[in-house]
Amino acid sequence: MALDDFKDVIHRCFRCGYCKFTSNYTDFNCPPYNKFRLETFSPGGRMWLIRAMMLKDIEPSQHLADILYSCTMCANCVEECRFKFHDDIVDIIMEGKASLVESGMVPPTARDFFKNIYLSGNPWKEPQQKRGDWARHYGIPVYKPGDEYLYYVGCIGSYDQRVQKMAGAFGQLLLRAGLSFGILGEDEYCDGNEVLMMGEQGLFEYLAQKNIELFKERRVNKIVTLSPHAYNVMRNKYPRLGGDFEVVHYTELLKELISSGRLKVPGGRKIKVTYHDPCFLGRWNSIYDEPREVLESVDGVELVEMRRNRENAFCCGGGGGNFYTDIIGGGESSPSRIRVREAADTGADIIAVACPTCMTMIEDGLKGEDLDEKIMCNDISEIVLDAITSAEEG
Amino acid sequence: MASGEDHVYEALRTIVGDPFVSRDREELYMYSRDPGASIPRSADWVVLPSTTDEVQKIVILARDMKVPVVPISGGLTLSGLAVPVKGGIVMDMRRMDRIIEVNERSRYVVVESGVSQGKLLSFLKENYPMLRHSMPDAPPSASVVGNTLIYGSGHLSKHGAHSEMINGLEVVLGDGEVLRLGSCALSPYWFGRGPLPDLVSLFVNWFGTTGIVTRLSLKLYPSHPLRDMLIFLVQDPKTIPQAVSMITSTDMMEDVLIVASRPPKAPSVISLLTVYLTAETHEELDFKKELFVDMFKDFGQEGSRMVFTPKEMLPQKLIHGFMEEPQYAAATADFKKGGGFEYVGVVLPLSKVPVAWKMGEEIARKHGFDPLYTVRNVGLGHGVVFAFAYPFNRADEESLQRSRDALADTNDMALELGGTPWKSELEGQAKIMARMDPVVLSVMDGIKRVMDPGGIMNPGNWKHG
Amino acid sequence: MPVKDGNSLYAGLTDILGQEFVSKEPEELYIYSRDSSANPPRPVDYVVMPSSVEEVQAIVKLASSKGIPLIPMGAALNLEGLTLPLKGGIVVDMRRMDKIIEVSEMDRYALVEAGVSQGKLISYLEEKYPMLQHSVPDAPPSATVAGSCLICGYGHLSTNYGTHAEMVNGLEVVLPTGEILRTGSAMLSTSLWFGRGSLPDLTGLFLGWLGTTGIVTKLSIRLYPRPPIRDMVIYMMQDSSIVPDVVYRITHTEVAEDVSIVGQERPEWMKGYQIIAAYVSAHTEKELDLKKSYLKRISKEEFKSKVSFMEEAPGELKEQFMELPFFATKVADWKKGGGFEYVGAIMPIDTLPEAWEKGIDIAHRFDMLYSYAIRVVEGGHHVLFTYSYPFNRADEVSMHNALSALKETQKLSLALGAIPWKPEVDGQKEIIKKMDKGTFKLMQRIRKLLDPGGIMNPGNWEVD
Fold first, then answer.
1. Which stretches within chain A are classed as H helix?
2. Whether the Cβ atoms of residue A52 and residue C30 lie closer than 8 Å to each other
3. How far apart are CA B262 and CA C432, in angstroms?
């Protein structure tokens, strides 16, 4: 794909602005527009500016880069746009960023992001050989051919201390269910979803091919991903590059394990939980029910919805590389802080997440809002695991 | 006026012809007072033009001679708005009483400013039985244009105050310029005010200080063959907002009116809420009646109910009065067998009715009156015009003074509540302006300067400082 | 470029608003110099986004001291270039001022800041005051409430309650001097915004003036009861000359909440038909049935075979017609080109047949299909007749055709005695040409009074 492929589409945006809202217009649901409020930061503004760039009416610039890279690729615009070309909007924005990559005009933090991933396989220049260290503590095995599932953890799950616990919780549940599975450990490499979303197509292809080759070499058939981002890219983008695997998100697998009885979840303590839909699970891949079903299968969990949920969920602000580049972060109007305030309004004890990116963003949001004492952020595996272990401990 | 006096008179005669100009004591006497309780103020000339052209000539004369011009039509404001403050020419518009045009399908009528309510009512009944206009509860001699320009209200005020029913104007400004405002500024049709920069509003509630309206296009509404009413006894005035809100949440009523009075020989004040209904068929009428009767079946508790009172249980004279169009509100004038009454009308939000009710009662009692109220819904519960009336005996100065005092107190109370006093007399205007921000006053002054550079248009009104 | 001394102006603006909400970057200047219409771009010097009336005042004072034009903007969806500067200057995007300050349930009004979107007010009322509604225009939900009122807009409920300008209870305005003016009941320095009241009316000075008299920062609008049931019936006919009669009879019943008329050449089955939709709302099914029976009787008794009546509209059509806001913007993609223009002409209903037939000629002459949407206003006192011309933004010829058709239609409308709604600058000039000379002179004098420096959206409502 290239921007040119959209030349018959891009001018079709009228800038009517449905894309800025939730479906019932309660809020602006486009994270950067909600924060910056200049029309340029709306999906329509981006469409028009990208077209202007194609027509050479405006030149690539740092400001343009900020406008495009502040997009979290949450796909609210895809959901809400009333026109037939709505599916193309995020692709066009992605291609717009690709043009900026070509002209060398990306935000400095995005440049660092690309560089680090290229050199180290992760955004933080962490050593590759330490990628699987977290798993030892939980006794999570390394994948070997013949295992049913490759458990793909991803960069954040591998290196972020908080998210390592999330990765561990899911691993322990798989162990308890008696599944044969394993991680790639020090051989795991960045999945490339964010790189792709940020328009570095060359780097994406390099990463994807590297992963596909490795998976094939290890005779992987089924992949369960911790991150919806990895899930998205492996399920939707890898096949075109020859990587045809059966990919599931961990919440889907948990749902199946619980409903088939392989994983028994006894009643836990009484808690009020609200679930934050990750964009790459929800709007990108229409998975809304499974995570909720898992939560509801835990006795004692009372599931309450935030004002914006499912198709209308407000993005945590971390997508499109923003968890790293931080173009949209900071201040009271940062998406994560808005989102945790919304969660607090439900009176929930726990914000349940199903995505490593969301987890880091929501944790930051809670600290920013001084809510970290009042509300916990847990991923769905942690909640399930907690119910099991607390029942065992009696 | 000594020096120019004769010249003005002669010039007026040249413009309108002999019989239609006067400086005789009898006319000056009549035009120096209105039926309200205000103290008379003298007029110098009275003139009755018959065309816009004549109006223009008179205004140019007045402009050149620096003589005030005070337009009058029905002369029934009861607040002296058409009685000169600074002398000058009283321009009686009532010879200009042509109904120029009815556009049936676009439902508007263009009238000259002397057309009376009665004339329009009968004209429409005869020629356009499917149409009607919103009648105020004023005598049929009241003027359509006058009533419209002072935020009148009437039977169809669910569509808003009468000022909101203006589709366009022809006016003569203080400098003699004749203009058309609204769609008629560029179209042969007088179908609406917009979508143009709005100038019509510069004649709404300005009491003739911005120019003289010579023609007005008024919105008309469908007329239906059947009309009836339901009467509810109001046990507790605190429930009125809720009741009106419920009634207006349907589009099934024609009008909602609440009247409180102490009929002769009655032991106390009786408050009645009336819902007027119209319909094409009896089925429709029955449906509407049932709807509203049911609506109040379980309303409130003992002591705060709206008690449905079948018409048959009430004096037929009263019912007849209620159903009359226009309602004979002026009957109040003879409550004291003295031929006079004056009232303060206040435009209030619906929610303020109970407190206004209570405070009005205190004022009435203080000055030796029983509360005498009329409250009309305007819009769909968007506001009310609350009239506090004080009848007096014209032949009894003490009674007149009590009436004036009660009016003054009521004005203060209304302003305190955030209401806007309706068609206020000079004193009331002064009180209103005392509450206005200096920016408002300076814009008002500026507008007046633009429209009337010589300051000849009904001077003394809306004047501060 | 009238903007000299640019640096100190920029510094002044950032002093007021901070860096984040002032822009002179090419990206913002690009977007704000264009709207969704086919109008050519017009350069903007600065874009600012104030968040409070004090900030607006400071901006106005600064611009006034430097003689820089100010162009207030809501969502810029008027499609007539009314927020594109004619003489450069500062575009004031009001949309950070988006608080719903107060809803008075009993007195049925909402006091909102000028940047509140239609969508926000719709959802807010739905959630908190389900018994109330405001009149929603056929615009996207991103359109602003204030914008629609100030351009004398129309929406659902306009058939009963008039234009959006008529629904304004009062305004807070920053005058070109930087002073604050409140109109309506709030003139009396109270916090009540219940109506224009019986005071000298100043509200009109900002209605229809297209931003040339001041910047509106707050407004109170009327809210209306919202009955729980809403439905519609349809009349179809193949003769534009009987439409005025049918509409007259429908509005005479006073049971229709809204009446609109549609005509378009595609899909094929619609070609040649006039389709009248009459909306009905009710509190009970019985009330609904009664109202519908009235509407049915008209077609049966008065028009017989000339009009076919559908008590139930076909599913998909009904879904489209019932949506609030109505998705009129879909026209924009008819040519797969992201744009449409329209002329909204306000006219008495008697002129509808001629407007209908001649509009078809114009559309065909410019290689387009006719597409009409007509709203009956305030019980039939007039209609808003909109002629839509979709165009392809990437195709110069198509844009040119749309603009030409637009101009022709404007001419037609004026000749018929109609008034083009919210006209772009050339249309304004056509209107002025036809307008009573004294009236235009008065407009100029009022403007001079309120805006002696001529900084408010200059070029609009002016002659060359």
1. 31-36, 43-54, 62-69, 76-80, 89-102, 108-120, 133-136, 155-159, 161-177, 193-197, 201-217, 228-232, 250-259, 289-296, 322-325, 335-345, 356-368, 380-393
2. yes
3. 58
H helix or E strand, kind and range, residue C276: strand C274-282
**For strand B108-112 and strand B99-103, is the pairing parallel, antiparallel, or unpaired?**
antiparallel
Which contiguous run of DSSP H or E holds residue C216?
strand C215-222
Q: Is A333 in the C-facing interface, judged by CB distances under 8 Å? A: no
Whichever domain contains A207, its CATH number is: 3.40.50
| CB pair distance less than 8 Å for C377 and B192 | yes
Whether A63 contacts chain C with CB within 8 A? yes
Interface test with C, best of A9, A23, A39, A41 (most C CBs within 10 A): A39
Q: Which residues pair with C281 in a beta bridge?
A: C230
User: What phi and psi, each to the nearest 5 degrees, are found at residue C297?
Assistant: -60, -35
**CATH code of the domain occupying B97-222:** 3.30.465.10
Domain final residue, candidates A221, A256, A291? A256
CA distance readout (Å), B155 to B137, B138, B221, C369: 8, 11, 11, 46
Q: Which of B105, B178, B450 sits opposite C438 (nearest CB)?
A: B178
The residue from A82, A106, A130 where one domain ends is A106
Percent over 70 (pLDDT), chain A: 99
Q: Is a pLDDT exceeding 80 seen at residue A347?
A: yes
Whether the Cβ atoms of residue C184 and residue C193 lie closer than 8 Å to each other: yes
H or E element that contains C385: strand C382-392
For residues C450 and C116, what is the distance between their CA atoms, to the nearest angstrom?
26
Question: With contacts defined as CB-CB under 8 Å, which chain C residues touch A25?
Answer: 117-120, 122-123, 141
Dist. CA B32–CA B84, nearest whole Å = 7
Which residue ranges form the domains of chain C, and what is each CATH number?
Answer: 6-95 (3.30.43.10), 96-225 (3.30.465.10), 229-322 (3.30.70.260), 328-423 (3.40.462.10)
ipTM: 0.94
Angle at CA of residue B261, ends B256 and B267, nearest 5° = 135
Fold of B226-424: Vanillyl-alcohol Oxidase; Chain A, domain 3 (3.40.462)
For residues A329 and A381, give the distance between their C-alpha atoms in angstroms, rounded to a whole number.
27
B381 Cβ under 8 Å from any chain C Cβ: yes
Stretch A347-368: mean pLDDT: 98
Domain residues for A26?
A: 3-106
CA nearest neighbour of B376 among B412, B424, B329, B314 = B329
Tell me, what DSSP letter sits at residue A183? B
Name which of B59, B106, B183 to mutate to probe chain C: the one with the most chain C Cβ atoms within 10 A of its Cβ.
B106
Interface probe, candidates A15, A33, A77, chain C, greatest C C-beta count within 10 A: A15
d(C-alpha C70, C-alpha C57), whole Å: 12
Q: Which CATH architecture has domain B5-94?
A: 2-Layer Sandwich (3.30)
To 5 degrees, how large is the angle CA C18–CA C22–CA C23?
140
Query: How many whole angstroms separate alpha carbon B137 and alpha carbon B327?
Result: 5
CA gap B44, B28 in Å, rounded: 7
Residues of chain C short of pLDDT 70, as ranges, are 1-6
Alpha helices in C67-189 (DSSP H): 118-128, 145-150, 158-161
C352-391 pLDDT per residue, tens = 999 999 999 999 999 999 999 999 998 889 999 999 998 8
What CATH code is carried by the domain that includes residue A335? 3.40.50.10700
Query: How many distinct structural domains can be found in chain A?
Result: 3
pLDDT digits (tens, 9 = 90+) for B63-103: 999 999 999 998 888 888 999 999 999 999 999 999 999 99
